[in-house]
Give the backbone structure.
Amino acid sequence: MPVFCFLLSFSINSQGQSVTGTVVDETNTPLPGVSVMLKNTTKAALTDLSGNFQIQVDNIQTDVLIFTFFGMETQEVPIEGKTQLNIT
């Protein structure tokens, strides 16, 4: 009697991890429209009317986010394993 073997292949779609946060100015006012970009990629997001953002990152330990806003100094912020960032 023949024996049938089935090989199943599973692939995990590694989309990275989501990082969220809020961007405010020095008076704690939320900043809408701030560009949040994952360094050395084309992945980007904009902050909403409350200054909140969400972006998918590739490596939560080593990736860096770049925050740019007209009239403000650009900031590069290492994620360093955090899933929530508050940026001033």
